[in-house]
Amino acid sequence: MGVIRKTQALEILLAEFENDSGAISAKELIKRLDSQMNKTTIYRVLEKLEDDGVLHSFLGNSGIKWYAKCNGCSKSRHIDVHPHFQCIDCGKVDCLNISMKIPELSGREVVASQILIQGKCEVCSA
Amino acid sequence: MGVIRKTQALEILLAEFENDSGAISAKELIKRLDSQMNKTTIYRVLEKLEDDGVLHSFLGNSGIKWYAKCNGCSKSRHIDVHPHFQCIDCGKVDCLNISMKIPELSGREVVASQILIQGKCEVCSA
DNA sequence: TTTATATTTGCAACTCAGTTGCATTTATAA
DNA sequence: TTATAAATGCAACTGAGTTGCAAATATAAA
């Protein structure tokens, strides 16, 4: 199920990702957009944007869901599998523009990988 | 807070990890040991075993908590930071006995990393 | 422009992993 | 054997995320 209609909710959500270079958690979006739309709508629009390859999602530190813009993803293929960095001080999450080699595992077939690196970001480690 | 007393719950839980070479989710342990102890006890004992460096924990696919035996961890240091492999068919999770190099990130200080590789295990890919 | 209709939204109620407070039980040391 | 600190069970809670359904709305057809 892809994005079909240009709704207000969709545009407000997309604007959040335009203004934010890093990743944003669903939780944070619910807090930010509380007065503008229902949390159910947020979850549903995010899901559609992910299906359409506009956003990608991953799980942060505490198992909550984060979203960030995709680079070169499509409905069928999410090539945007990169590590994410979460600051243990301020909680900010960024996509890392590097590729990490996933080793061959004999007998096993690798399909995907999720890499979360934790530490102190540029601001918090200064 | 470390493990202090040799209680029945502790021994039953440790036995589960003796008989299982891979990782076990808290959820699975609650199911397995339902008749033997309360889920609160399971969560609390697991937490203590982790504090003591007997087990380590990480988050699986869907954000639920998994535990596995440590190799060479201690109260103060968890050196057992290795990738985990989760089978997308049968759900089984294993610790991978390989080390993956985390790249230097300029301006950022890396403290920890969580790597979850997803795919088909030896049994399910055969 | 109006209308028909499928999609989207809000709301409330729910799910489910994990947590907390507190009274009771139990392992351990004196 | 007893005192007591630690561990346990239970019930109620938390919080992210989901679901069903009625109401609202974007879009295409007339």
* Beta strand count of chain A: 6
Integer tally of domains of chain A: 1
Strand content of chain A: 15-25%
Most extensive interface: A-B, 30 and 29 residues
Write the CATH architecture name of chain A: Orthogonal Bundle
- The CATH topology of chain A turns out to be Arc Repressor Mutant, subunit A
Which term fits the overall shape of chain A? globular
CATH class of chain A: Mainly Alpha
Structural class of chain A: alpha+beta
Helix content of chain A: 10-25%
CA gyration radius of chain A, whole angstroms: 16 Å
Topology:
Two copies of one chain form a homodimer.
Chain A: H1 8-18, E1 24-25, H2 26-32, H3 39-51, E2 55-59, E3 65-69, E4 84-87, E5 93-95, E6 109-120
Parallel strand pairs in A: 4-6
Antiparallel strand pairs in A: 1-3, 2-3, 4-5
Chain B binds a DNA duplex (30 and 30 nucleotides) through residues 1, 4-10, 26-27, 30, 37-41, 43-45, 63-65.
